[in-house]
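pls design
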C-alpha cells in the first residue's frame, strides 16, 4: 500500500509540475558584459563645405562573446534568456582639444542602436536610450549566437586614436538542470 501511495504521489507531483520544476531550477546571473573597441584613426579626411574644418571618419568593430564572461561561461549551453538592462558608453584617450563630432553604435544583424554627438575628454561617458524593439532584437541575437558584433562609426575633429568601452548591465537566465 505504501508503494502504491508513493507512486501515485510521485505521478501527481511530476506530471503537472514538470514546467514548474523546470522553472524552479532557473538561475538568474546578474553580470556586466564589457567590450573595449580600439579605434585607430586613419588620416583620411572627409570633405566639408569649409576647407579649414577637418573631419576624420572612423569605424571599428569588436565581438562581445558570452564565453568571455567568467560568470556566464559555465551556463553557455543552458541559457534561456538574456536581458540587457542598460548600457554605459565611455570613450577613453581623447585629448583636451579633440572632439568626436558624432558616434554611432550598431549591432550586426540588428542595426544602429545609438547615436551620440559632442563627445570630449570632459564629457566622455553617456547612457544611450535604446529603442525597445532594437534592444529585444539584440538580446535575441545574443542568445542565439552567444555573441554580438558591435561596430562604432563616426567622425572627429582631429586624427586621433581612442578606445570605446561598452558596459552592458545584464541578467542571464539559465536552466541549472538543463
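designed seq:
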Amino acid at each position: 500500500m505504501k508503494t502504491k501511495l508513493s507512486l501515485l504521489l510521485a505521478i501527481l507531483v511530476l506530471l503537472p509540475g514538470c514546467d514548474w520544476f523546470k522553472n524552479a531550477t532557473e538561475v538568474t546571473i546578474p553580470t556586466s558584459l564589457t567590450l573595449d573597441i580600439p579605434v585607430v584613426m586613419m588620416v583620411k579626411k572627409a570633405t566639408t563645405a569649409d576647407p579649414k574644418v577637418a573631419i576624420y571618419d572612423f569605424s571599428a568593430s569588436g565581438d562581445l562573446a558570452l564565453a568571455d564572461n567568467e560568470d556566464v561561461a559555465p551556463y553557455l549551453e543552458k541559457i534561456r534568456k538574456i536581458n540587457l538592462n542598460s548600457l554605459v558608453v565611455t570613450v577613453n584617450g581623447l585629448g583636451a582639444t579633440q572632439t568626436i563630432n558624432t558616434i554611432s553604435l550598431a549591432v550586426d544583424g540588428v542595426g544602429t542602436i545609438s547615436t551620440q554627438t559632442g563627445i570630449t575628454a570632459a564629457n566622455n561617458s553617456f547612457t544611450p536610450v535604446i529603442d525597445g524593439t532594437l534592444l529585444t532584437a539584440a538580446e535575441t541575437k545574443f542568445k542565439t549566437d552567444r555573441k554580438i558584433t558591435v561596430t562604432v562609426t563616426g567622425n572627429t575633429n582631429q586624427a586621433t586614436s581612442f578606445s570605446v568601452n561598452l558596459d552592458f548591465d545584464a541578467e542571464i537566465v539559465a536552466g541549472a538542470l538543463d
